Amino acid sequence: MQTTSELDFRQISWRTYKKKAVNEIVAELGNKDIISTDDEDLKTHGYSEWSTVNLDTLPVAVAYPRTTEDVAAIARICHKYRVPLIPFSGGTSLEGNFSAPYGGVSVDFAFMDRILQFNKDDMDVVVQPSIGWQDLNQKLANMDAGLFFPVDPGPTAKIGGMIGTNCSGTNAVRYGTMKDWVINLTVVLADGRVIKTRRRPRKSSAGYNLNGLFVGSEGTLGIVTEATLKLAVIPETYSVGVVSFPTIREAAAAAAGVMRAGVPVACMEIMDDVQMRVVNLSGSTAPRTWKELPTLFFKFSGSKASVAENISTVQAITSRNGGEDFEFAKDEREQKLLWSARKESLWSMLALRKNDEDVWSTDVAVPLSRLADLIEVSKKEMDSLGMFASILGHIGDGNFHESIMYNKNDPQELEKVERCVHNMVNRALNMEGTCTGEHSIGWGKKESLLKELGQETVDVMAMIKQSLDPRWILNPGKIMDVPWLPKETHATKADVAVTPIRRLTKQRASE
Ligand SMILES: Cc1cc2nc3c(=O)[nH]c(=O)nc-3n(C[C@H](O)[C@H](O)[C@H](O)COP(=O)(O)OP(=O)(O)OC[C@H]3O[C@@H](n4cnc5c(N)ncnc54)[C@H](O)[C@@H]3O)c2cc1C
Predict the structure, then answer these.
(1) Do 496 and 57 meet the contact criterion of CB atoms below 8 Å apart?
(2) Which atom number of ligand 1 is nearest to the Cα of residue 214?
(3) Which cofactors does this protein require (predicted)?
(4) Which of 17, 154, 159, 302 has its CA 20 to 30 A from that of 206?
(5) With a 6 A CB cut-off, is 101 part of the ligand 1 pocket?
(6) Other C-beta atoms within 10 Å of 285: how many?
(7) How high is the pLDDT of residue 13?
(8) What's the whole-number average pLDDT of the chain?
């Protein structure tokens, strides 16, 4: 690794490079619509109201490629001019993952949203990055495929970003996370070369596992333009049940008991009393309302006999842990309402904001046996803030989220929230946990990553980045700092691109 003293950055007027890079992209692709510099477009591609962190910079342009070849050309040109490239799919990530600290071009795949190949007999599908997981499942249902894609993060998330964050969701306890469903990727590298990571069998031990490298790399190593994904068989039947508990510790202990008993639940989610109140207030399951107590949500799936057996085992475990009145959704409509109340809980919370309020929503994960301790202490600290704050999470994976409403213009409130989140992360790390179970690092959790894995491990990540993207143009500043840029350099004006390049000579240093 080069040291900071050998390296530096220089600011390049975007006006100089905009003309060159944008004109060259338009000339090469022969389509003016491929690039937008519209202010609103720049804002939606650099700012997110549900992200824990937003920067005072925006991308300087948004590119809308139609094909892998378009993406390769954009990368080649941006590589030549050392302009940062930030892939953008659904824009639902939560840790400033697609923010533009050094300006650059956001690459939005909105026009690359098709199923390219459906191999029903092989139970796989080849898709472009901008197809949403919900749209994919709707299309599979329309084809009467009997198959579905089980990874379910934010409702409007898309496959490219889901690969970027190695996301999961409520189904992960049964089906695993995004990395488990990727067979093969087509990836455009920083300099415009195009590679495929594998062919199409469901397993392969040929060479390095490049899928494992690109999944979760947050657009910092390559740009995914096609993905071959495994599909799962739709279970014969579903049932959704809800059970409340006097305390969050008892709810967490019941969840751990279900996991240790080896019951193959399809989903197991926790919501605290505050989050249940949010569901009631949002009216999203009206006319039905719920007890405002710590609650576990279960989804059971499989054959009718196996579902009945799993329900009875879970009922026994929850009642041993203080669970009251197991209630079931009456019909399919109620099942959907109940589940969407869980999936949209963040939006329900956002809908309750007043004036300048924001919601800080972040996650950690710990080994199962530590979950009850972690949740109980974190909940106590959150309640002592005197702010509207809730806990919810994918408890079967030892993964939970804190969501805290605060006034972003009040420095004291901001400081309180930051401290509370840091304490939660530190507690999780002290319990051999991780600073993020599914939201990834982005801009917001770089220091936590360093604490979690240590400098040497992060240096190995930087070496991989360096060898695949020597000019650090791919989503720079995410996961780890650009080694030769001081942290404060992201505070540039939107019309200036700071390219993360090295100062070549001493003379240049004074330019
Ligand atoms: C209401 C709500 C609920 C949520 N629930 C969950 C949940 O249950 N589980 C969970 O895991 N997450 C959840 N999230 C977070 C979010 O949905 C996930 O992080 C999701 O994976 C992001 O997908 P996206 O398409 O929105 O990605 P984006 O936000 O567009 O991008 C995410 C990252 O991937 C990179 N990227 C995007 N496209 C590509 C590409 N083609 N090639 C390479 N890199 C790319 C981006 O540069 C960025 O770093 C939730 C969010 C919301 C708003």
Answers:
(1) no
(2) 43
(3) FAD
(4) 159
(5) no
(6) 19
(7) 56
(8) 89
C-alpha to C-alpha distance for 43 and 79, rounded to whole angstroms: 24
The model's confidence at residue 246, banded by pLDDT at 50, 70 and 90, is very high
Per-residue buried b or exposed e for 295-319, using 16+ beta carbons within 10 Å of the residue's own CB: bbbbbbbbeeeebeebbeebeebbe
For residue 475, the ligand 1 atom closest to its alpha carbon is 47
CB-CB neighbours of 16 under 10 Å = 11
Strands (E), 89-193: 105-108, 115-119, 124-127, 147-148, 182-188
Q: How far is the CA of 162 from the centre of ligand 1 (A)?
A: 5
Rounded Cα gap, residues 113 and 387, in angstroms: 40
Give the position, in ligand 1's atom list, of the atom nearest the Cα of 478: 49
Q: Token digits for 354?
A: 């007043």
CA torsion, ordered 270, 273, 274, 278, to nearest 10 deg:
80
Spans of all domains in the chain: 14-108, 115-233, 237-431
CATH number, span 115-233: 3.30.465.10
Q: Kindly report whether the global pTM for this prediction surpasses the value 0.85.
A: yes
Query: What CATH number should be reported for the domain whose range is 14-108?
Result: 3.30.43.10
Q: Return the number of other C-beta atoms located less than 10 Å from residue 8's C-beta.
A: 15
pLDDT in tens, 350-391: 888 888 888 999 999 999 999 889 999 999 999 999 999 999
For residue range 11-25, list pLDDT tens digits in order. 455 557 667 888 899
Asked if domains 14-108 and 115-233 share a fold, the reply is: no
C-alpha 443 – ligand 1 centre gap (Å) = 14
From atom 15 of ligand 1, which residue's Cα is the shortest distance away?
93
User: What is the CATH code of the structural domain delimited by 237-431?
Assistant: 3.40.462.10
- Token match 């009467």: residue? 144
